[in-house]
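Contributing new complexes? Match this layout with DQA.
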Amino acid sequence: MKILVLNGPNLNLLGTREPEIYGHETLADIEDAMRADHPQVELEFRQSNSEAELITWIGDTRGTYDGIIINPAALTHTSLGLCDALKAVADAVPAIEVHLSNTHKREEIRHKSITASACVGQIMGFQGFGYILALRALVNQING
Ligand code: DQA
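Output block (do not edit by hand):
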């Protein structure tokens, strides 16, 4: 099983970026924890600050990946293009959306996710552990 883990803008700064909201774990720490939780799953980890790059990566998943875990970061609230890309492959490559923070407890502009409707489900509010929950849920989903 091959899963693509995508992280959007500014998530490369995890660890030092507003740790009171996002926690102290870096993206590399989260990656290590996911690999330890599911050593049998092939995980490909990528981060980009570019919406276009994320859209291209999603569009290329068909036939190569079995699922996507995505934290679209700020693009969650703005990107119809990302939503369309996820929908375009959803029949073959199911996605789960993850957020470190509970966006519903934050500013109103963060309450709406444009991308969530293209995903099987959404996990938020558990900081880095949410990625592990998303991985467990996605493996379960793929295995039917
Ligand atoms: C985030 C929440 C977004 O609102 C924010 O723009 C992020 C991170 C999260 O993981 O909590 O960059 O996706």
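Reviewers usually confirm one structural detail per submission. For this one: Residues 2-143 form a domain with the Rossmann fold fold (CATH 3.40.50.9100).
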